[in-house]
Amino acid sequence: MDTRNDIALAISAATGIDAAELLSYIEIPPDSSMGDYAFPCFRLAKAMRKAPAAIAAELKDKLALPAGITRAEVAGGYLNFFEDRAGAAAATIMRVLNEGENYGHSSEGQGKNVCVEFSSINIAKPFHIGHLPSTAIGNSLNRIYKALGYNTIAINHLGDWGTQFGKMIVAYKKWGDGKPIEESTVRELVKLYVRFHEEAEKDESLNDEARAWFRKIEQGDAEAVDLWQRMKTLTLKEVGEVYKLLGVEFDSYNGESFYEDKMQAVIDELDAKGLLKTDKGAKIVDLSEYNMPPCIIVKSDGATLYATRDLAAAIYRKNTYDFVKSIYVVAYQQNLHFQQFFKVLELMGKTWVKDCVHVNFGMVSMEEGTLSTRHGNVVYLEDVLNASIEKTLDIIKEKSPDLEDKEAAARAVGVGAVVWGILYNSRIKDTSFSWSKMLNFDGETGPYAQYTHARCCSVLRKANGYDKANVECSLLSGEAETALIKAIAAFPETVKAAAEKYEPYLISREVIDVCSCFNKFYYDCRIMDDDPAVRNARLALCDAARICIKNGLYLIGLEAPERM
After folding, report:
1. Is 112 a catalytic residue?
2. Distance between CA atoms of 190 and 168, rounded to whole angstroms?
3. How many helices (H) and strands (E) does the chain have?
4. Which of 12, 74, 119, 440 can pair with 56 through a Cys bridge, CB separation 3.0 to 4.6 Å?
């Protein structure tokens, strides 16, 4: 990418056109014999009022070639650039080998805080497949920003407040058979919650009881608060096992209840700034001027809403963490909510709202008949992960019967396959899981990427190491070697792009590119060549590919097994 920047700067100096614009036009030719980089001159035809071929010829004559570029050639309307491949190979490979697990990292975010809110499960409710996109995308973005040097604060904004807890308490006291909450499971609590709604359809007074119990929680009643806290503890213990499987960690579990005593200050500020209006007994912020429905702050019965708590949470996070960016990984169904919520912050004069970002995503579903354990319309995430692990273990037993610790490999690959299913496409696309596609060891899948990493490790084990201090990169000039080096070299810039666009899938695609190039190199080039210098250089390239794949997999939340 540094070379592309240099080419863009050189063209900018020759044309006066902004280098950032020119950079976006630079391409990689489909055939390396055509060059290493190509600039499509038709992009300048309108501005320069000349034919693309004429522009290419003119640029070739007046361009000062950047360092590392040996020549430029005109090919129709393109100006193709040829780099010093030996120099590029040496720069890339030695950088990867020297930086190791830090390859792709930077210090651009040093001293800056980024809040990432994701997963945000509900207490005493199913941790289901619908929570996977937020959890996977958020975890990846958290890792990506951390890799770029930012201090990240991973936040699980728990749904731990509301009348549903009054319903849970009523159901538990009536039909819980006296079983201590600690000895129950979240699934048993969900069954009680479902039964409450079934019974409430026949006896509406149950809803009054539920509201009364929630008021007790709000008022600090000892029994009510104790039951609520125990349900919360049970839920966090269970979901903690799922998070552990996914390799997800949080810095804060401050949920809705945490902001209960912080909302009045927000309401008072809105009122003091003349933003609150009364409409049918409710307090609202009128957003009709911005083509949006009103943002309800307090309902007519005095209850607050998500918007009220989100306003309080945003202000608390700014005051506490002084973030340079606050990311909310929440489904696209909440687009309007975030538009309203951000607009209210803007109207309150919170100039830092420009640093708040709603990272939305599409829906996720399972193919019919692919999961045996179903709970109504709910597919538990734990069931999906365990099913994937079991299916992976069957495949490993068949394909690698002698593999040690098959269970650990199955866990890494099975979980990775599920996460990869979310992170291989742009986040806004809807995802439908297919076991046959997810667990395929060929093609653009998680298992394929992990298997390629294991293949790199296998080659290096069999070689019993190489001489890192004496790598003759000039020997890596073949087409397959050059393609692999270029793919590896693109990784750091891809990490930056993934952060800028909030798109982890860019890293997934980059990992696949490196894997594809490595496998072509593996088949086309004899790594254990008879020539010691060639063998040493190819082993170094193999190690660089291993490092790049492992680092990329980590950033999207996947493990990189050394044996499969």
Report:
1. no
2. 9
3. 21, 12
4. 74
The SS3 of residue 431 is: strand
Same domain? 474 vs 405: yes
The three-class DSSP label of residue 100 is helix
User: Is 126 a residue whose pLDDT tops 90?
Assistant: no
Q: How far is CA 403 from CA 399, 408, 448, in A?
A: 9, 10, 17
- Torsion over CA of 19, 20, 23 and 25, rounded to 10 degrees? -100
Q: Which residue has the tokens 């070299």?
A: 489
> Mean of the pLDDT values across residues 468-490?
93
> Are 442 and 515 in a shared domain?
yes
Residue range 175-196, pLDDT digits in tens: 998 899 999 999 999 899 989 9
The answer to whether residue 128 is catalytic is: yes
Question: Does the annotation mark 179 as catalytic?
Answer: no
* Strand pairing category for 364-366 and 431-433: parallel
Are the C-beta atoms of 210 and 196 separated by less than 8 Å?
yes
Residue 17's domain spans which residues?
A: 2-83
Q: Which of 131, 167, 325, 350 is catalytic?
A: 131
Would you say residue 299 lies in a domain? Answer: no
Domain end: 316, 344, 359, which one?
Answer: 359
Supply the pTM of this predicted model.
Answer: 0.90
The closest alpha carbon to 35, from 18, 52, 56, belongs to 56
CA distance 560 to 234: 32
Residues 426 and 523 in one domain: yes
H helix runs in 379-531, sequence order: 381-399, 406-423, 435-438, 446-463, 479-489, 491-501, 505-524
Neighbours of 425 (CB within 10 A): 15
Phi, psi angle pair for 109, to nearest 5°: -100, 10
pLDDT at position 371: 41
The residue annotated as part of the active site, out of 125, 299, 375, 437, is 125
Quick: pLDDT tens for 399-428: 999 999 999 999 999 999 999 999 999 999
> Which segments within 77-230 are labelled E, that is strand?
78-83, 113-117, 151-155
Helix or strand (DSSP H, E) at 365: strand 364-366
392 and 333 in one domain? no
- 154 - beta bridge partners? 116
Each residue of 486-505: pLDDT tens digit? 999 999 999 999 999 999 99
